[in-house]
Amino acid sequence: MKFFREWGRFMMMGAKAHAKWELDISNTILGDKKRIFILGLLMLPVIFVGLAFAEQISTALPDVLGGKKAYSPAYYSTGIFIVSILIGLGAGLITGCIGAGGGFIIAPALMSAGIKGILAVGTDLFHIFAKAIMGSVIHRKLGNVSVPLAAVFLIGAIIGATAGGVINRILYEINPVLSDAFITTIYSCMLGFLGIYALTDFLKARKTEIDIHAPHGGSDHDGKIEGAEMGNLSKRIQSVKIPPMVKFDYGLTPTGRSISWVFLVLSGAIVGMAAGIMGVGGGFLTFPIFVYMLGVSSMTTVGTDIFQIVFTAGYASISQYAIYGFVFYTLAMGMLLGSLIGIQIGAMVTKVVSGVTIRGFYAMAVLAGFVNRIFALPGKLGELDVIPISKGTAAILETFGIWAFFIVIGGFSVWVIGTFLSNIENLKGKEAK
Q1: Is the peptide bond before 244 cis (omega within 30 degrees of 0)?
Q2: Which domain holds residue 423?
Q3: Radius of gyration (C-alpha) of the chain in whole angstroms
Q4: Is residue 432 situated within a structural domain?
């Protein structure tokens, strides 16, 4: 039981850190007129191509996208584009309002909308890469980036992302259903751990009725710099002297700290593989691994995380998915647009909603994603003849998971937007009616 609790806490820390990155990126893009103009230019090809060729393209696309076919950037459907905006909006609302990664629901949402798993992963990665490039704040964080730490880490990240992409493509070539089953299983496990932890956390907070919510990746350490005081695991890892040693965090100790390149490469490989397989950029793992395992301060970790997401997501999305036709650009642009809007609305709603309520909604959202994937799994295992299950039963289970997922996410989205609209005067600093 302790293992499950600690693993859930580990993932929650990562989800908060990734949400902080998403919010920073969103603020950077929307706070710069040039970046907004560039975003508009990125949307134009999607819109114009759709208007010109919508009828021909919509008839050419199969019901299930990614079914043993590669798609060029030109393929377009107005309905698909609108759905992608709504998915991005929902994920953005979760990220902005709850302060924990809403990006975890994007791949399950895309798969529920009829997109093959490998295409959902590749598209999600490209969406993260496009967002990272547009909203890059590396130049503002250079003081917190340890270049040697980041460079060695990226060696492992590239190896891991390559391995993750190869695994997904091999499974897809063997059988597209096998690929879907594999991705679904990974997401079921991750969302299950995170959802149970979030629900337990919410119930404890509600029982004590103490609002200790730390929005947008905040720490629960009363202002201490995470990583400044290392735990036993971090001390043991840093005591292993396998050269070359990489030095960092000179501001915390007179001589700085050092760690063997082996642990950095291994950590990078884990993060890269997660990005390559799941399409979430890997940023949600960098923070807890660096701070709680390797003993890197949170300040250095934040800078390094921003740095690695750009390169890891970019490398994985282009080299492992885009060149093989597993990126649906229309979806990526729609999700980018929706998430930017959702994050801003969600972040403002946190000013007028209690933290305990927000934590309850997060637990519901993550568990809805878990139910969605776990109820889709029997049908896929049945198609692979792993378990005996009729097509009718499998369809009922999957339909239930899809409806449960979209009802919860849709209900949450309506509630957040409604709360935002009804509190506009409060958010402007005026007295509400």
Answers
A1: yes
A2: 2-427
A3: 21
A4: no
